[in-house]
Amino acid sequence: MMSAAAEIPEPDDVLLAQRGDSAAFERLYRLQAGQVYALALRLTGAREPALELTQDAFVRAWERLESFRRESAFGTWLHRLTLNVFLNQTRADTRRRNRVDVLDDETDAPVVGTDPAERMDLEAAISKLPRGARVAFVLHEIEGFSHEEIAATLGLAAPTVRSHVFRARRLLMEMLDR
Amino acid sequence: MSDQADRDEADRLKALLGSAARLPRNIEPPVDQWPGIRARIDDARVVPIHANAAPQVRTPAVVRSRTQRYLVAAAAVIVIGGSVYLARSSFYMSAAPSTAATTATRQTPVLASPASPAVADAAPSAGRLGVRSRTVSSRATRDPAHVMSAFDAYEDAARDLSSSLKARRSQLDPKTLAVLDTCMRQIDQAINEARAALGHNPGNEIVTDFLRSSYQQKLDLLKRTVEGPRRTL
């Protein structure tokens, strides 16, 4: 458990890290890794890609520290940067598969076991959502983004995002009712 | 669909969204990522990029809905508030300061099998509260049987710490005890739910991480209560 004080990076650490102090950046990593990993785990739905995304996000943060202008909390900036890294990777994967829609998940239908004993908690159920529905649900229902904000971020129409969220809700209720 | 069915559906949806909003915002990575990050940022190919690529940011007021903020705040009050209260209680003032507690949140019992050398280190001993730096073998993190064995080590460590705490309960302020017990009930409930979920779905990585995080919270709270004040609060 982290203390209230530990949730807030020391301003000097951000400044020191911006000047190239990797020890200060390590302290920032220690403070923020849990929040970044939680977001990464929910966006990717599995541990290994979440660990990779966490590492990629911190490396990208190091690269772009100069652009952090303290207009928000460092954690907020890092949160958004993690999401951008995820979306960039998703777009790259999509291009490799010659697919158009970044959240096109027709082939990512959820694999839900038929065993009625396979009840799971909400986290596990979210991890089994198709990618588009999972990302939209995580961003809207957990991270608190509006449909319009998600649409702008993902380059989709707001009704499409609403549709993804709606679909995620239905699938989750079905999975959790089993 | 009947009105009653509509109401039931709405209730279920409300419960689902409430649960989603209450999901933990912090899940510690099962593996320390810093060595890999350090190696990459030390690589000459990684160079700073200038400001024109700044990611857009939002203010916290935009980030979360009002309901979500209330739920997150309620959870934070219980967990963080409990920690702050405990840290500032008179009990702590009479206890010996411990700089080790400052880094306690960054330590965890090792996820490894009982047969591995690492588990011997993870097992609690009288003088060393059953925690050590995070080192995880990939085999241990993937094998459900090994993972469950490691969680047994968490249970053992928590049991020992609880015994130590039990012996000192009479010295604690009743308000302190009430806060501690409330926090512990919340954490134990989360642990029980996660263990039940793992029972139905062994090897699920997300539930495993959630369970580990819950155990870390429990051990950290117990450890700080037994050891003494945190200077960084």
Provide the low-confidence segments of chain A as ranges.
Answer: 1-6, 98-102, 104-119
Quote the CATH topology of the largest domain in chain A.
Rna Polymerase Sigma Factor, Chain: A
Shape of chain B: extended
CATH 4th-level superfamily of the largest domain in chain A: RNA polymerase sigma factor, region 2, helix turn helix motif
| Number of domain modules of chain B | 1
CATH class of the largest domain in chain A reads: Mainly Alpha
User: Main sheet of chain B, how many strands, which sense, barrel?
Assistant: 2 strands, antiparallel
Descriptive account of the structure:
The complex is a heterodimer of chains A (178) and B (233). Chain A is mostly helical and 178 residues long. Chain A has helices at 11-18, 22-44, 47-63, 74-96, 122-127, 131-142, 147-154, 158-177. Chain A folds into 2 domains: 1-99, Orthogonal Bundle (Rna Polymerase Sigma Factor, Chain: A); 105-178, Arc Repressor Mutant, subunit A, CATH 1.10.10. In chain A, 66% of the residues lie in helices and 0% in strands. The longest helix of chain A is centred in the N-terminal third of the chain and has 23 residues, at 22-44. In chain A, 46% of the residues are buried. With 233 residues, chain B is mainly alpha-helical. Chain B has one domain (62-227). Chain B has helices at residues 3-21, 34-42, 60-63, 66-88, 90-94, 117-122, 138-142, 144-168, 174-200, 205-227, and strands at 107-108, 132-133. Chain B is extended and about 60 Å long. Chain B starts with a helix and ends in a 6-residue tail after the last helix. Chains A and B meet through helix 2, helix 3, helix 4, helix 5 and helix 6 of A and helix 1, helix 2, helix 3, helix 4 and helix 9 of B.
